[in-house]
Design goal:
There is one protein chain. The protein is mainly α. It folds into 2 domains: about 45 residues, Homeodomain-like (Arc Repressor Mutant, subunit A), CATH 1.10.10; about 130 residues, Tetracycline Repressor, domain 2 (Orthogonal Bundle). Helix 6 packs antiparallel against helix 10. The termini are far apart. This is TetR/AcrR family transcriptional regulator. InterPro entries: DNA-bd_HTH_TetR-type_CS, Homeodomain-like_sf, HTH-type_TetR-like_transc_reg, HTH_TetR, MftR_C. Keywords: DNA-binding, Transcription, Transcription regulation. It comes from Kitasatospora nipponensis.
């Protein structure tokens, strides 16, 4: 087994996803993941803090993408529009490997601890976008409302996208459903 082989992180992630899908998250060990990737368990722990981290290691890059997109939105962009554009950029990344996203979602959905961690991750992404909006000058509660609403729309759109075997365009679903939400709010002013 190679210690410093290139692509170790990717091989470990792929091995973990395969094992989680085959035998379940709970029954899979770090040692099994490393063995499947033809690496050592020590190498696994150089790349991941624990076996859950394989499913969540992209959180920092997602947060960076979202905050960068919100921060770099043109001056005068409405807070909800900045959040929507940021989430569409994230959704476009999901479409690059929809099968991996589908497998990951099935693994997370089957485990209460992982579902809870997913909700914590989403709350962190909303908080990061709200911070970015405040840095742009959006006052409270508008910054938090826009960010939290964006995440809510993203969750609903993602669930639809993941359950549709024809895999429609996730950014398009987000755009459509954000517009739908605007329509609902316009029909019920003060709601």
């Amino acid at each position: 087994m190679g210690r410093w082989e290139p692509g170790a992180r990717g091989r470990l992630a792929q091995a973990a996803m395969t094992l989680y899908a085959e035998q379940g998250f709970e029954r899979t060990t770090a040692a099994q993941i490393a063995a499947r990737a033809q690496l050592t368990e020590r190498t696994f722990f150089r790349h991941f803090a624990d076996k859950r981290e394989v499913l969540f290691y992209g959180t920092e890059s997602a947060r960076d993408l979202l905050t960068s997109a919100v921060t770099s939105a043109p001056a005068g962009t409405a807070p909800m529009d900045a959040v929507s554009a940021a989430l569409e950029a994230l959704a476009a990344q999901f479409q690059e490997n929809p099968e991996r996203v589908r497998v990951r979602d099935a693994i997370v959905s089957a485990n209460a601890e992982l579902r809870e961690r997913e909700l914590v991750k989403l709350a962190g992404l909303a908080a990061a976008m709200a911070d970015a909006l405040r840095e742009r000058g959006t006052p409270e509660p508008a910054a938090s409302l826009a960010a939290e609403t964006g995440i809510a729309v993203f969750k609903v759109a993602f669930a639809r996208w993941i359950s549709d075997p024809d895999r429609p365009d996730l950014p398009e679903i987000l755009r459509t459903w954000t517009d739908e939400l605007r329509g609902v709010l316009a029909q019920h002013p003060g709601a």
